[in-house]
Amino acid sequence: MLKILIPTLLLIPTSWLAKAKWLWPTTLLHSFIITLFSLAWLKNTSETNWSTLNPYMATDPLSSPLLTLTCWLLPLMILASQNHLAQDPLVRQRIYITLLVTLQLSLIMAFAATELTMFYVMFETTLIPTLILITRWGNQMERLNAGTYFLFYTLASSLPLLITLLALQNKTGTLSLLIIQLLGPIPISPYVNIIWWTTSLLAFLVKMPLYGVHLWLPKAHVEAPIAGSMILAAVLLKLGGYGMMRMMLILSPLAKELCYPFIILALWGVLMTSSICLRQTDLKSLIAYSSVSHMGLVAAAILIQTPWGLTGALILMIAHGLTSSALFCLANTNYERTHSRTMILTRGSQMILPLMATWWLITCLANLALPPLPNLMGELIIISALLGWSWWTIIFTGAGALITATYSLYMYLMTQRGPVPNHMISMNPSHSREHLLLTLHLLPLLLLVFKPTTIWGSAY
Amino acid sequence: MSAWRRLHVKVRRAHGLFTSRRVTEQYTWMYGPSTLGQNLSTGKPLRNDFFKELEAQLAAMRKKAADALPGSSWSPFDINPNLPPERADIVIIGGGVMGWSIAYWLKQKERVREGVKVIVVERDLTYSQASTVLSAGGIRQQFSLPENIHLSLASADFMRNINEHLGVLNEDPVDLQFNQSGYLFLASEEVAHIMEENYSTQRQVGAKVTLLSPTQLKEKFPWINTDGVALASYGLENEGWFDPWSLLNAFRRKAMSMGVIQCCGEVTDFKYTVQMPKGLEYQMVECAIVVNAAGAFSGKLAEMLGISSNPKDTIAGTPVPVEPRKRYIYVVHCPDGPGLDTPFLIDYSGMYFRREGLGGNYITGASPKEADEPDTSNLEVDHQFFEDSVWPRLAYRVPAFEKLKVTSAWAGFYDYNTFDQNGIIGDHPVINNMYFATGFSGHGLQQSPAAGRAVAELILDGNFKTLDMRGLGFRRIMAQEPILERNIL
Predict the structure, then answer these.
(1) Scanning every residue of chain A, which has its alpha carbon at the shortest distance from the alpha carbon of B87?
(2) What is the ipTM, given to two decimal places?
């Protein structure tokens, strides 16, 4: 663990001491090396499931894919931000990279935490760099509103979690995940346990986001700069899912009745947000709502607490992380050229940038869960698990899958096909940096087709 | 000692309060219930009465609640609201009738609500120097270029059904005061053949025009002196004049109701091709498309693109040939003048006049010769020009105008296209995201609805859909192929 944490920590002095010409290549290379080391986490050979164990941090098959995804994303974020930060003063570029690295650190510590307290503190810590990214480097006036929504939704829902964790510590004497998973059901008085169940999960449900409390997500995703959108979509949402999976071990016997309203909300959210996608005019907003839709499936799968549900949730989280981040990168390449996110003004780019159209196609197909990509694996396993729980859910999940396919194809056709507007004729050609960025997003996705068990979690 | 004094003062103050209340109570008691219902004072009430203003208070509470809910645009940080937003999709420079027409059509053609974010930048919201409001307001189809005829015909159709297009719910209907009295062109012997050729073009395109011989002219309009007139061309339908201010406001009101943002500011610079700061307080607006509808000042705006730094005979160095030209309009009063069916008469000598209102007032003017173009640094009126150039020709053509009185006059700018005096509609060849809708040289107002639609189609559909205006594009300026109107004057 320290062999990843200390290099990541030292990336901060690197970004401050590197010469201006070498700032981006250095940080990129450094973060790539960290990523290569982090791939070692994917090998889980322990019988108790916990590897790289020390009193405060550990990895297990649930957290190691998410950890690797987090480490994988840092070089990608640095790669994506290089262009739009080029005209900022040097100090601001350094601050930007520092923010990304602090976010990375808190995320690694959050996913690797064994104590729920450390997890909670790191969970809250991730809010601050993200807020700074959105409000300082976002593009429009609305980013202030977006930052406020993001901060207060998450903060307000996670403060009850703090109380719950303290109460739990009081009752059981420990908050270590290693011990809690072995405890039996925790006796709590009959009416308080409902409140207790809700408060422990609310923070994660807001983070996922669940449909009723998802309003912060379109705002935050749209107003954030590209690195902000990438990290939000790829990892921060999964923090909610991961937290839910960990917390529900403790909440076990209550989950059977209390999860009903949330499963219904999640499934309804899948349908609703997919339909909203069809009516979006703003490209980033479309991708943001598609994130909500996929995460609704994940939330429903985690709430039913079956082995297949948890497996499917984890697979979909990893696959969606890579796909959604890739979509945001593609939208950003469009935005950097035309300075507009409106889809009606940026059509027909297949004629102008044909190679980018390839990436658009693969990513949109990944979004609509094309076999044999892990997106389909995750969705299929989740749908089957939900079907086992109740066969009425097939209406929601089936219709949701249909509408997902519709809006993914709509996004592809709107941006790539159609008449080329006059103002797009002389766009800058694609940079090789952008091709590298998208390759690095899609390559893991393709490799996971061959060994999906890496991301199958502890149920395998 | 001092403590006691302070106490004494306090008591007096309290006593004062007490006294005033007693006075009002006495007042109401003495004068009985009949005056209680009637509020005789005309000032505001002393205290806020919650129940009297219940409606207003409830509305305020509802508004506060709506602001607090998600989905409202209330923001705790109220940064200067006069500045334009930091980002927009399409920025239209120039808030005249052309700019607002383009804004309206862009919103009309977006297929979903809030599809494109449009802002219109106008540096003078009083429109004191804008060509739109200083125009004579005429509309005619009597051009020689088919494109011009199409534009005017479509615009006339738009304006006849203006409330279908620009009517806003719960607001007053639009009244353009469109007097369809027609245009009357008079041709002398030398230019009569041009008029005949134009007539056949116009009829072919669909304009409702007719040719009149001098005798028919005298029959129809007995007040005309037909000396020197060989042929006259009279528009029967869709020609006349209207109120340009009403059209501008109708477009503006409708466009703003559809979500177009209006900014008061001046564009001072372009960065690369997409960002432009404006106003004394700098605000960079990041946008995808810029539309130059700045009218008479379009040429100066295009200079900011750095065209002049390129060599003159390259495509990149071709300047936008629009400059302001000053034209005068004089309002004259003549009680014995021509009647209510007076058309917009344009004489071959360059003089024109039309009826204004119902009180015997007329608007008149003339095109100056190329050599005597007036100075464009201000909008001062030269009355000598009326005495020298307009009145003699006016009096010659209409004898009744020998006795008239000039009641008022103003001057306005033409956005004069020095190249071929016809509009430029299209995108710039080198700077791909700048579109032009300027250079109409005096017939911009009448073509504004159709020209706005053409530009909106170009931006959103990529091509002209309803009317093909490729002939009016920038290409002809680069290729140095002018498409001149074959006017008779």
Answers:
(1) A140
(2) 0.81
